[in-house]
Structure formats: structure tokens, C-alpha cells
Amino acid sequence: MAAHADTVTLPDGTQIEDYEFGTGVEAHAGRTVSVHYTGWLWLPEEEARGRNFDSSRGGEPISFVLGSGTVIDGWDSGIAGMKEGGIRTLIIPPAAGYGAKGKGPVPPDSWMIFEVELIKVR
User: Fold this and answer.
1) Alpha-carbon distance 27 to 76, whole Å?
2) Closest Cα partner for 111 from 98, 99, 93, 95?
3) pTM (2 decimals)?
4) Tens digits of per-residue pLDDT, 69-103?
5) Are 84 and 28 spatial neighbours (Cβ–Cβ below 8 Å)?
């Protein structure tokens, strides 16, 4: 999969691209973060978004402790370093997502793409 010039690939294969840099508190492991997100399947051969499968928009943001393993690995690695108010795209390979088992509307061995807005770090 080709990465854009401003895309960073993390060790777990997750690709991140910032669309808006936040100016608030920085997220790191052990901190509770609150995010709004929208998730789509990612079609790497077409470099295109597929079907939308989840979103927190229109409701409350979700909160979790970053790095605690309560979310998929691609979220733990991809949200680290963001600052409050930032918006980032995460392209997550199967190994950093739901892997060979899939989950709910995400089929096995699926790539996913998320737009994540970091609302709060505590």
C-alpha cells in the first residue's frame, strides 16, 4: 500500500496522517482519552474507503485508557502523540485490528480506516 508523503507508518503497520494538529494536552499511555471517531473498511488495493461500520458522531465520545489494551492495537499506537483538538486518520492493518477473526461488521483479515478527533486527555 502506497503511503502519502505526510503519512507515518508505525512499527505495528498502522499508518497515521494528521489533518489538524491539536494544541491541548498530549495523549500518551496511561492517560484516559476521549475521542469521536468514524470507521470504514479500507480497500488497500484501491486506496479507498469501503463501507462505514461504526461512528461515535451524533452521540457521546468514547473514553478509554490509552495503552491498556482495551481497544485495538492500531488505536493505542495511532492515538498516542495526538494533542487535544487534533484530527488524525488511522489506516490499520488486520494484525493491528481484528485480525483473522474479525469482529461484528468487520470481516476477518480486514484493513480499517478511522477518522479520530481527540476531544479530551485526563
Assistant:
1) 10
2) 93
3) 0.93
4) 999 999 999 999 999 999 999 999 999 999 999 99
5) no
Q: Which backbone phi and psi does 64 adopt, to 5 degrees?
A: -160, 165
Strands (E) across 1-122 are located at 8-9, 15-20, 32-43, 48-55, 62-65, 87-92, 111-121
45's CB contacts (< 8 A; 6+ apart) are: none
From residue 23, alpha-carbon distances to 11, 27, 96, 108 in Å are 25, 11, 27, 37
Radius of gyration of the chain (CA): 13
User: Looking at the 3D structure of the chain, how many domains does it have?
Assistant: 1
Which CATH number covers residue 52? 3.10.50.40
Is 113 inside a domain boundary? yes
CA-angle at 20, arms to 88 and 1, nearest 5°: 40
